[in-house]
Here is the input.
Amino acid sequence: MKDVDQAISQISSIRAQLVANTRFLGLSPEFNLFMGALALAVALLQSFWLPATGNLGYVGIWSAVMMATISISTLDVVSRARKVHGRLATTMLTSLLQKFAPFLLAMVLLTWVICNFSVANVWLLPGLWQLLLALMGFAALPNLPRGMIWICGWYFVTGMVVLVAAAQTEVLAPWMMGVPFLVGQVAVGLILAFDKASEGRGV
Here is the structure.
């Protein structure tokens, strides 16, 4: 039994190493392009609603948008991963979840704490969201196309810029979420499409 346990342990270790160095192919270029278009649409609509909603309403709208896109993209990613990665899909999805979960949890808890106990500082959230998104991307870089490092850098820079801009007036503007997500998600979609085309050509 000891030899069997060692063999199983070695197989698990090899499988984990394989997953750690395997590019994840479950991301959809089309869905990320859609997310960029959605960010633009929400920002344009919010430019008319913002005076009535204020900072708290602003955060509420974007929280709903992000929750919806995360839910839909999770279903899409799981479905695509099972088709592309076969038996490795569950292991790869679990590995990515372990990398993403701390940042997603921090995003949710920060939003809840600030909205419930420090409403005056709600202007901090869009910048913090973008910084956490950048860190989440950096954590998953070994499993993503190399070009994704630029997207992570983009969200890190825009997160800092939004924090500085919002600190000046403590009032949130539609561009603070609309522009970063429009550019970021469209760029993600293009990188994924180019990577997919390269794979098809055997590059």
